[in-house]
Amino acid sequence: MRVVALIVVIIPSLQSLACWHCGGGRLIAFDQWMLVEGEQCRLNRVICQSSAHSCLVAQIKGSQNFTITGCSHDRFFGCDSNRVPFDSVVYRCQCMGDYCNAIWFDLPPVHPRSPLEMGEVVKSSNITFLSSVFILFLEVIKW
């Protein structure tokens, strides 16, 4: 009986990705947090949902400046930037592997580093994700 319980506890943890996120911000999705410019980032760990494929740090610069950190459910890996509505630009980096997004945080003090500071930024055709993130932000700030 104890062996069965142990297997049930271990197997889900082996399948789920683990990432860093900026605590102190707003939870905007199951495993993503938004930090508005000026808010302090408190680095926390999150166990992603089983559908997550990568760890994420995305910065949105424009009419509103904010950062989204945590888990991502799309299959993009690397860094990119794209223009989105309201004269804004999304700079995004995603990586595969537990806590791999630690490289995009300054420790200490804890501040998300701009993906532009991380080196080469490529243009992505994955604009659907980026636009939906920005639209989600606009919905959140209406509250």
How does this model look, in words?
- The longest helix has 15 residues, at 127-141.
- It is built from 2 helices and 11 strands, in the order H-E-E-E-E-E-E-E-E-E-E-E-H.
- By secondary structure, the protein is an alpha+beta fold.
- A hairpin with a 2-residue loop joins strand 2 (26-29) and strand 3.
- 20% of the residues lie in helices and 40% in strands.
- The protein has a domain at 18-104: CD59, CATH 2.10.60.
Would you spell out the secondary-structure blueprint of this structure?
Blueprint: H1 2-15, E1 18-23, E2 26-29, E3 32-36, E4 42-47, E5 54-61, E6 66-72, E7 78-84, E8 88-95, E9 105-106, E10 111-112, E11 122-123, H2 127-141
Parallel strand pairs: 7-11
Antiparallel strand pairs: 1-4, 2-3, 3-6, 5-6, 5-8, 7-8, 9-10
Which key phrases capture this entry?
143 residues; signal; 2 helices; alpha+beta; CD59; two-stranded antiparallel ribbon; seven-stranded mixed β-sheet; Protein quiver
Average predicted confidence as pLDDT: 75
Tell the overall outline: globular
Spatially, the strands of the biggest sheet line up as: 2-3-6-5-8-7-11
By CATH reckoning, the class of the domain at 18-104 would read Mainly Beta
The CATH topology name of the domain at 18-104 reads CD59
Low-confidence residue ranges: 4-13, 107-111, 116-131
Tally of DSSP helical segments: 2
Biggest sheet, open or closed, and with what strands and sense?
Answer: 7 strands, mixed
Helix-strand string: HEEEEEEEEEEEH
Strand content: 35-45%
CATH architecture of the domain at 18-104: Ribbon
Structural class: alpha+beta
Distance separating the two termini: 48 Å
Tell me the total number of β-strands: 11
| Computed Rg | 16 Å
* Portion of residues within helices: 10-25%
Keywords: Signal
Organism: Steinernema carpocapsae
Signal peptide: 1-16
Protein name: Protein quiver
